[in-house]
Amino acid sequence: MPLPATEAPGRLQAALASRGLRLTRQRRTILGVVENAKQHLDASQILRHAKKLDPEIDRVTVYRTLKLLKRHGLVDELDLMHMQGEKHFYERRPQRDHIHMACLRCGKIMEFESDLFDRLKGQIQRDCRFHIVVSRLEVGGYCADCRTNPSE
Amino acid sequence: MPLPATEAPGRLQAALASRGLRLTRQRRTILGVVENAKQHLDASQILRHAKKLDPEIDRVTVYRTLKLLKRHGLVDELDLMHMQGEKHFYERRPQRDHIHMACLRCGKIMEFESDLFDRLKGQIQRDCRFHIVVSRLEVGGYCADCRTNPSE
DNA sequence: CTGTTAATGAAACTGTGTTGCAACAGGATA
DNA sequence: TATCCTGTTGCAACACAGTTTCATTAACAG
Ligand SMILES: [Zn+2]
Ligand SMILES: [Zn+2]
Ligand SMILES: [Zn+2]
Ligand SMILES: [Zn+2]
Q: Do A145 and A102 belong to one domain?
């Protein structure tokens, strides 16, 4: 369940356009898929969704577009603790970073925002004189449901 | 060339033994490589180091041993922000978690321990009623050297 | 020392992501 | 709207990380 469902339709498209990058039919389709995804998708899921809207789209274009978005800091790449093999997942970079929690039993992915996380990043930048461009905090463990119903 | 596998009996070996797992010649070699590594190694680097000590070792055994160590929480798997392709890196799980900082310019990897990080994990466990088993915080950005010498 | 059983090595395989290149199309310009 | 330039696409072949299968080997308990 993505946190704030506040949709800004076409934000990715607008961002690409403002950088002078070509908005092709295929890119528009892929951007739409990423932007409107209800959960974290990997490259092959993005391809599958995109093919429903435009059957001509090739997987190479999906990979190239994801790489482009990543390079421009418009999407973040996640592992989700590699619970489903070596896949990588993508989400539009949010206004405020969040933590990903992956339940090792039921596979649920939860998100969490925290002031402490923001302060921690501030501390890293100050104490290590390190300018943070991208950050990723993922934890694996057991969710509330799985802790109270370990039998099911 | 092949050195005796009678290396200093590290903590990893002791941990495996205490769990009733077989300590084969190959496992001892691989454990020694991971334990004595001076930097973060990926699977193929671990294989290369291990082959110097025991040329018979197969890459499959390296993968299987890493999986075993991961499953038992004895090593952590890192991405280091995927700066060198999709490789994954390994390190012995430390007594206290640390943050990995990867410089996007010079490729340097730095480590950092922080009370704030420990408190953040505590907050997650309390506020989300989520029992943390493993956590990973990686940040990408620019290190102090690269910020002061952007010319070199 | 012996037997049981887990671990290994070799090869074939899966799946993710990349590269080279000819054909194509976005979008600027006139 | 037509033209051009250049970045983008689709395809096939490739590269590489990691897994599976199975016959053989060896840990270690008895
Ligand atoms: Zn759960
Ligand atoms: Zn998310
Ligand atoms: Zn990864
Ligand atoms: Zn640097």
A: yes
